[in-house]
UniProtKB/TrEMBL annotation:
Species of provenance: Monodelphis domestica (Gray short-tailed opossum)
Membrane topology: Multi-pass membrane protein
Record has Metal-binding as a keyword: no
One term under GO cellular component: plasma membrane
Top-level taxon of origin: Eukaryota
Record protein name field: Olfactory receptor 148-like
GO molecular function, one term: G protein-coupled receptor activity
Any GO BP: detection of chemical stimulus involved in sensory perception of smell
Keyword match Cell membrane: yes
InterPro entries found in the cross-reference section: GPCR_Rhodpsn, GPCR_Rhodpsn_7TM, Olfact_rcpt
Length: 328
């Protein structure tokens, strides 16, 4: 949801074609990360380690939140959701990326490509909305502490989580439907490491301008809206913190949202750099998307485990309990 789009300036799909006696594409070939030929072994080791660390780190945070009754609060409810999405989001692209980096087939079926595109945008959009929800939670906690438990009640938390998932699903369904309602009958080489709209649409045998415009508008407006809501929440939080007289109170208030703020910077920082570059760079675009899809979920587990004292305590209890179980 929050990654940039890079549409080629010209493509065979920009003008309508009369389609006769064509063979329907049944699979696509993923050509991988641009300009990384000969680096497959190194990249395989790096991405494998990142993927394993991501799965283990987010799973441990999820177990810690579930097992500790002290963490059964709205803030950690949303953190648990984020950890869940951070397990699934990199799993959309990492397994296939690791397969062809290890020298195996680069082919992905037509349905597999459509599924990859859908879940990529569904989970990415859902995470983007969840960041906004978490910033609102921190806003209520710091600006309205006495009413926090009343405002952020269990019912509202469930509604926010449900709406977050539903909006992400609708967003991904629209983009996937627009992309794969077009016929694909010619070249099937995807110049990227996963199926995404900007690299799949140029392979269509019909006019893709509508899908390009809707996709760019949908993703761009949603990303800007989410970023704006986060900006508003943290502006209000910053004003509230500055009004706290004691240094200890300011430090405590800031510490409650510092981890979330760091996670947001990891997610949105590279995107801001991309949008401010003068000319599109395919390699830089790929690096940014890798940061968002694969690296950011790993960093989230590090950020929340290192900067959040409650999570650190819960993780120690989980790990110590596991150690005692093994010894027994």
């Amino acid at each position: 949801c929050i990654h940039p789009f890079f549409f080629p300036s010209s493509s065979r799909a920009d003008s309508p074609m009369k389609i006769e006696n064509y063979s329907v594409v049944t699979e696509f070939i993923l050509l991988g990360i641009p300009h990384t030929e000969g680096m497959e072994t190194v990249l395989f080791v790096i991405f494998l380690l990142i993927y394993i660390f991501t799965l283990v780190g987010n799973f441990l945070i999820l177990v810690a939140i579930i097992s500790s009754s002290r963490l059964h609060t709205p803030m950690y409810f949303f953190l648990g959701l984020l950890s869940t999405f951070d397990i699934f989001f990199p799993s959309v692209s990492s397994p296939k990326l690791l397969v062809f980096l290890s020298g195996n087939s680069r082919a992905i079926s037509y349905r597999g490509c459509a599924s990859q595109l859908f879940f990529h945008h569904f989970l990415g959009c859902t995470e983007g909305i969840l960041y906004s929800v978490m910033s609102y939670d921190r806003f209520v906690a710091i600006c309205h502490p006495l009413r926090y438990s009343v405002i952020m009640n269990p019912r509202l938390c469930v509604i926010l989580a449900t709406c977050t998932t539903l909006i992400g699903c609708i967003h991904a369904t629209i983009l996937t439907s627009l992309t794969f309602q077009l016929p694909y009958c010619g070249p099937n080489e995807v110049h990227y490491y996963l199926c995404d709209i900007p690299v799949v649409l140029p392979l269509a045998c019909a006019d893709s301008s509508l899908a390009q415009r809707v996709g760019f508008t949908n993703v761009g407006l949603l990303a800007l809206t989410l970023f704006f809501t986060i900006l508003v929440s943290y502006t209000r939080i910053g004003i509230a913190i500055l009004r706290i007289r004691s240094a200890e109170g300011r430090s405590k208030a800031f510490s409650t949202c510092s981890a979330h703020l760091a996670a947001i910077m990891c997610a949105y920082g590279p995107i801001i750099i991309i949008y401010f570059q003068s000319t599109p760079n395919p390699l830089l675009g790929a690096v940014v998307q890798i940061l968002n899809n694969i690296v950011s979920p790993m960093l989230n587990s590090l950020i929340y485990s290192l900067r959040n004292k409650e999570v650190k305590r819960a993780l120690k209890r989980v790990l110590c309990g596991a150690g005692l179980t093994v010894e027994a």
